[in-house]
Amino acid sequence: MNGDIYSLIFAIVFVPMMVLGWLLILDRLRIRRVRREYSRLTVETRDQVLSLIDHAGRERFTCSVLVADTPNSDPNSADVTASRYGGSPYAEAGETWPDAATGKPTPADFLIQVRLDEKFPPPWIGRLVVVFNRFDVEQTVRCYATPSTPRSMTLSGGPTPQKEWSLLSVRIPIQIGVESSTADPQETMPTPAGLLDYDPVILLESVPELTPLLKAHTSKPADLLAAILAPNHASYGFELSDLVQQGGQPVWLIEDAGPRLCQHCGKAMRFLFQFGDLNGGITLGDAGVCYVFGCDEHPNDPLGIVQMS
Ligand SMILES: [Zn+2]
């Protein structure tokens, strides 16, 4: 009788614990493997992978992903008007460093600046959008119509800069078999498959040339592709909070917040980009995502809102 009870306890308690333990070990091994494979990848191979994806999306793309390059060792040599995460923000004469909260003299963290490219219609092409972190749902967002090195100035009074990452823009092709109603990426609806167009599994289908290229470096191409798209994320996949998406439709972290309306004219604002905390901190809360919108009629006053998981 006692033997039966011990067998039952073993089956109920220890067997699931052993299975869980093995799964955790396999998970850690998989993470270590993909980090090792990514660290061995040359910049040329990484660029070749990104180039294949971008080329596949040259005619019909859903959005762009801004992929973090290696951290800038010499930020002073970088183009001050280029897209980047961390470092020092672009600013022009007459501006001051924004506060993190109303009435509190704490300087806000500079998070990201995105140079909107030709994928956007006027008046957005070439504009530079700069986002600072506020202790609030709405963030501080500044927009520059004609950013340039001669017009730029260094803002004083900010906190210690975060690690700086240059951002490489990669067009993401529309999933195979998924038809969009229009060629305009702003009008493209979310795909019915439930997986994002930049999910590594989907990209391997959309861009068949990727698999043989990645298989020369790994037995699991999707894992390595995830590490290439989100190199700061120490795992074999990635979360929304590990990425920067430019254009397309917003991918909401928790719930669809609906169209954002301009505070000046009440019209629906255009989605510009979304990003998480690429430096892996808690600036945007626990794996939060910031969404930036702008009104075509009032482009100097974009809106940035944060969702947290
Ligand atoms: Zn407006």
Question: What can you see in these coordinates?
Answer:
There is one protein chain. The protein has helices spanning 2-40, 43-56, 200-206, 210-215, 221-229, and strands at residues 61-71, 84-85, 99-101, 104-107, 110-115, 128-132, 138-144, 165-173, 244-246, 270-275, 289-294, 303-307. The protein is globular and about 80 Å long. 24% of the residues lie in helices and 22% in strands. Residues 185-193 have low confidence and may be disordered. The chain contains five helices and twelve strands. Bound molecules: zinc ion (ZN). Residues 262, 264-265, 267, 295, 297-298 line the site of zinc ion.
Question: Main traits of this protein?
Answer:
single chain; alpha+beta; Hypothetical protein YwqG fold; two-stranded antiparallel ribbon; 12 strands; 24% helix; 22% strand; globular; binds zinc ion
